[in-house]
Structure formats: structure tokens, C-alpha cells
Amino acid sequence: MTCKEMILSNEYADIINFDAAITTENSVSEAYCVQELYEDKSIIYVRRDLIPSVGEETYWYNYVPKLYGLMQDIEYNPLSLIASGILQLQRPPLELTGRNVIIGVIDTGIRYEEDVFRRSDGSSRILSIWDQTNQDGIPPEGFYYGSEYDNEMINIALRSENPRDIVPSYDENGHGTAMASVAAGSIVNKGLYYNGAAPDADIVVVKLKEAKQYLRDYYYIPEGVACYEDADILQAVQYVEQMAVPLQRPVVIVLGIGTNMGDHTGNDALSLFLNDVAGRSNRVVVVCGGNEGNAAHHYEGMVNNNTINNWDDVEIRVGPGEQGFVMELWGTLPYLFNVSVRSPRGETTPEVVSQIGNSIRYEFIFEGTIVEIGYWLVEQRSGEELITLRFTNPTEGIWTIRVTGIREPGIGTYHMWLPITAFLRSETYFLRPNPYITLTAPGLAENVITMSTYDDRNDSFYQNSGRGFSRLGVVKPELAAPGVDIPTALGVRTGSSLAAAMTAGGVAQFLQWAVVEGNNPYVDTEDVKNYLIRGGTREERISYPSREWGYGRLNVMGVFDLFADV
Q1: Do 281 and 349 have their domain in common?
Q2: Is the pLDDT of residue 67 over 90?
């Protein structure tokens, strides 16, 4: 098989390799294919019959792709652009419109025919589209799959009677189109019809390939729900980032996807890779904080090992029709924990003892439910204890996980996360949830700009927005941006992805001033982040940094007011 066929085949597993350089004479054989990334990082596609199944061996945790979902809660009004200090900067004297800056949107694709992605002469502002789902064209250089359509091909398509006969890429979902229009939509009819945050920025789009079926099956993703694996997202990030070199332009990468899996400190593969990209000059990465703040999918527990009753009972309400789900427990050093599971009918597993490489499967006789418990005494990247619980056909009702502390005296803290709302089939949630530490990955990546969401009509925090900080107390998010009832090219939409998109457009404005116009030509994400924090809008009644607001509300104009006062 070719590498392209392996990447697309469900018979080949996708392995994220950030731990060792691959030294082979050939990057492809009958058994495997290697897609190289930066700095000895790679993705390996290998025959599934040659390796353990997902979840079968606990040491596979870091190598198995995580699945990411879209962060959107399913007469034009520019007030959100004004609240963010963006529209003011588009006007004289600064006229910051994202000119000669590239905004990379990695999502569900783009409806490139829309007027909001064209210049006044009708030509496209889209530099290229990498459609990972279409295998009929030529892949981008350095990649094995999908089809790339450049600006020339897109313009030829726009001049034809049937554009999709020439560029057959379309955003069926609309999520990526909405994000791109908020970040970089053109000024249509002098702004009376539409006006994006950076209306003169150029656009690069990656339409992500949906996750393979074997991963969807393992994580119990409901049929018809969009989800994407980091093996494809990593390559999409590399594709967009590379645009900075030949075009010699600054690049903003925006992501409107998220997952609850991972240690919530930024040690997942995608977060680590984004950190690398964000640390380079003239690259800025903006991500959303997710919509999990009000979902009751996070639990924070404590166990007092100084008492006889050194356990904590975690209750999960499982709704009707739930076919299965995977959840994670992360302990905090130096404490260790054991778990046992009790069903709604009172059937209880023995206590599963923490040990290296321990993986146990229980079948509840009266429930017909299977629970697989995996242990990582020291998870490789974080050094923390990790326990995964995979429920198959869970009975409706209250399930209880008893978490018991062992060894160390004192009070041990741990955290548990259920999947994001889109990946569950019904109302499944913790009965005693904690709304904090609910930012989705990759929003915990240290170097990126992470945005929470608020309603600019009344300056209220959006109740579903993810909240910080990280599990170990690192300040995230940095700022909050409007994301409620935001006008897009496809109508009014709500979600943290739109807050990230608006911020990306504001960042493009700043990069035009800093890099394109030569005022600060070597800025990276950390620099831009700190400028935006200093320009943010803050209120006396709120103590900053805040778990909801970070360091305040996005105000790009505030950055330039700061310059004027210094």
C-alpha cells in the first residue's frame, strides 16, 4: 500500500510519536508509513494487526490520537467588533485591516464562493485550501493525502459557471466558514452587509479529515458528530505555518476545536506542537477555551489520608441511550489513588490497585455494562498518575466511582473529566461538578493565546464558556472575547470558536502594524499575548487574573492607546 492509502485506511493505526527519532532507510513499507513533523516529531501509520488494540496496553496512552470536537453551540450588527476595539483600528489614521497578514483556519473547510472571501474585483482572498477529505487532486508538497487548491485555481473556479467542478471543496458543516468570516470576512457593501475583523488579510484553509472509525469506536463518538484526530490536526498546523517562509508574511493560526482528554496542563501532543510553532517569530497561535464550563463534566476531589474513611465517592448520572464513553482521572503528586465502581443496582467491583501497566476489565452481570480500567502510575509527559475508565453500554442511573487514597499522609487532590458534550449521546454528568479547570485542550498550551467567551451586549460572561486555570494553577485563559450571537457569513452563531476567530482577526491587525509596517518586526505569540493583555479592558469589581476573564476583555484599540500614553 502507498502512504496515502495507509493514512486513509481504517486498517492502519495512527501513532503520535513525540518521543524518539525514527531512523529508517525508507519512510514507507508494507507495514508502516512515517510522516515527519518538526524536530524529530512524527506520525506513524502502522498495520493494526501488528500492534495492541487501543486501550489494550496502558503504555499506548501518549501514542493514541485524541479526538477533538467543534466548539460551537449550535440585520448585521458590528457591535462585537467595536467592543473588541477592532473596528476603530480599521479606520484612519491607522487603517489596520490585516493587510499582508495570513490567517490560517484549521476546521471544517470554507465555502469559498461567498462574497465575504472576495476582493472588490471579485477575486478570492484565499491563498490556498488543503482539503484533507478529497483524494482526487494533488496533495501539498511534503504531505501524502488530500488535495491542495491554490489561489489561481480558486479564481478560475469563481469565473466558471460551476465552480465546484474545478475546486470541489465545500464546507458542509459551516463551522469553518463562520470562523473564517468572523476573523477575515471582507467589507461587503461598505460594511452595511458584512465586515470581518481583518478584512484585507489573506486566508489559508485546511479542511480536516474526520477521525478514523476505529478511534470513533474506541471513544464511542455518536454517529454523525464531527470529530477530528490530532494526527491530522498536527499536519494541518505544519502546512499553515510553512506559509510564512516562502511568502515572507506573518501568520496567525486559529483553532476552534477542543477535547476534555489530557492532563489539562498542556502536555498533550497538539499543545506541545503548538508551543513550538507559537515560539517562532511572526507566528501567532490563537485557540478557543471551549464550551464546557456549564456542562458538569469536570470533578475535583480530595481524599484525606489522615482519616479512616480515606475515600471520596464520585457520582455520575448516566442518561438514557448512552452507548459508552471514556473518562480520565488525573492525580496530583505525590499522592496515589485506587478506584472501584458501583453500578446503579449496587453491583460493585473490587478495588483496582494502582500499579505499573495495570489494565483490568469488569463485566457487570445485572447491568450488562463493561468497564475497562487502565492505570499509568507515572504518565510519561506529566509525571502524574492517570486512570482511564471506559464504559460500554452503561445502564441509565447513578454510577459511583470510589476513589481511595493510598501511601502518602495528608490530603490528596485529583481531577476527573468526562468527554465534551458533543461526544455524549445524552445527559451524562457529575452530580457534584466543578465549573473551573474546564478549558478544553489545546487551550492549556503555555505559549498560545487562549480565549474565553462573553456576551458583549451586556458584558456578561457566557455561561457555557470554559474557565481556568490549568490543573496546576497556570493562568489560562489570557483574555475573553465576544462569542455570543456573533454575525457570521452564515448567520448569527454562538461559541468559543467565534471568540477565538475574532481575536485572530485582531491579532492580524496588530501584526500588520508590527511586522508588515516594520514597527516590531520579530514579534512572536508571547509578545503579542502580552501586548493584548496590557491593552485589555478591566473592571474594578473583578480581581485579575480571573478564572473566567483571564486578564480582562479583548481590546485591540487599547494596545494602541497604551502606546500613545507611553
Answers
A1: no
A2: yes
